[in-house]
Amino acid sequence: MYQDLGRNQANYTPLSPLSFLRKAATVHPQRLAVVHGERRLNWAQVQARCRRLASALQRMGVAEGDTVAALLPNTPAMIELHFAPAMLGAVLNALNTRLDAETLAFMLDHGEAKVVFVDREFSPVMKRALALCRQAPQVIDVDDAAIEEGEFLGEIEYEALLETGDPTFAYGLPGDEWNAIALNYTSGTTGDPKGVVYHHRGAYLNAVANIIDWGMPPHPVYLWTLPMFHCNGWCFPWTMAAVAGTQVCLRRFDRKQVLELMRTHGVTHYCGAPVVHAALAAAPEELKQGLAGVKGQVAGAAPPAAVLEEMERMGVEITHVYGLTEVYGPASICQPKPEWAQLPIDERAELNSRQGVACLLQEDMQVLDPDTLQPVPWDGASVGEIMFRGNITMKGYLKNPRATDAAFSGGWFRTGDLAVVYADGNVKIRDRSKDVIISGGENISSLEVEDVLCRHPSVLAAAVVARPDPKWGETPCAFVELKDELDLSPDAALAHCRQNLAGFKVPKRFVFGPLPRTATGKVQKFALRDAARALTDAE
């Protein structure tokens, strides 16, 4: 009956974020798109600059399938690079600005970058990385007015390169929405980083999911507290084009500057790791005045009750999301129910700490038995592995079929995160499979202990790992980072944990000081395990 009804240009269009840019520039050409210091760009200017950049890259020899790398902070150039290479069918590899030269060289070689854009602030580390590359890419320098130090490594600067391009450069959508649009590398804490490949379809759908699931209105004002190198800024460069909003750039996180920018520009939305929200909540009172109607998104551990309460008092509403690089950043969201608003803050904080449910445009998120792939009971106690399935999932790992096959074994993307499901269908992470502590035959969730520690008003962050024990096999060892100018003794930490945890879950050791983190801000638990093993009973 339907055999003669095929696809054609009238009834089928490949999904791509490039559509968002065209519409923003056509429908809202004069609307403010980018703010960076004293600089202002509207959407017509952004599209023209992206066209110039695409044209210039094409003249340099960049073609479909080539990789264009960038070592940049959150500046206009980084926003434009989320569109210009895609106009050619090329792939953006946004490099983590906190990485060392050896890791950057590995990524440039592995991704076969043809061109790399480098902000002057990062020229020293990039210079060393280029010397280590088997075949160094061409370098384009980005001279941001906010930075004075750093040398030029290339033969041309970014703005001069744009001048060589055509502002009317004709671009179209990809021939196949499955084509790659971005390459992002995992943290690589246990070996070489894996290259996660995104496609146009997933980038498009996650950008739209951000709007729907967060209830974003037309033309919001988004502050770039989240690095754009992290899962392409959770796809928000493309989201902001879809809503023709305003993006306020921020080179690095500074809580005083963040709060000033929020007031000055009427920021409505921002995203960040838990430490970002904790830092804002702990800011001096005079810096936190004049905020209202700001919405923040947090990934990873949800803020403790004290932080959540302070953010609410400041006029900031926090939404908890969950995801990984392999699912374009956040792929699930904790959606508060109206009745939660009447609950005490501690109860609300616990409910908001859940990883929630799959985003609307991610087909499914389940907690499954990793061996049988059967769903665990919705009882809040039975533990399984979180798995995703749907369009907002990577193509796979670049040049790593073994890791790709393992990640997709059984027809699901396996996260390695262990969780339970409550009766209402909301998922709650209990731990990473490798982070469960087994003490005297009892399983202890390190996340549960960390959540309790973070509820103490003096604690900024906490990480709990296993420490070998001759009697129990292993016991919890807590590493605690305190807020500025606040103190907490081991005895006080012990008493706090005893009040809130079963006895076998209480850490036997407390170590105070800054937590070691990866270049993406994740706590390096492998380093803490080594430190815990090295502790003597006398310490």
TrEMBL record:
InterPro entries: AMP-bd_C (IPR025110), AMP-bd_C_sf (IPR045851), AMP-binding_CS (IPR020845), AMP-dep_synth/lig_dom (IPR000873), ANL_N_sf (IPR042099)
Top-level division of the source organism's lineage: Bacteria
Gene3D superfamilies per UniProt: 3.30.300.30, N-terminal domain of ligase-like
Keywords linked to the UniProt accession: Fatty acid metabolism, Ligase, Lipid metabolism
Keyword Phosphoprotein annotated: no
Domain (AMP-binding enzyme C-terminal) ranges: 448-522
Ranges where the AMP-dependent synthetase/ligase domain occurs: 22-398
This protein's record includes keyword Lipid metabolism: yes
Family statement: Belongs to the ATP-dependent AMP-binding enzyme family.
Name of this protein: Acyl-CoA synthetase
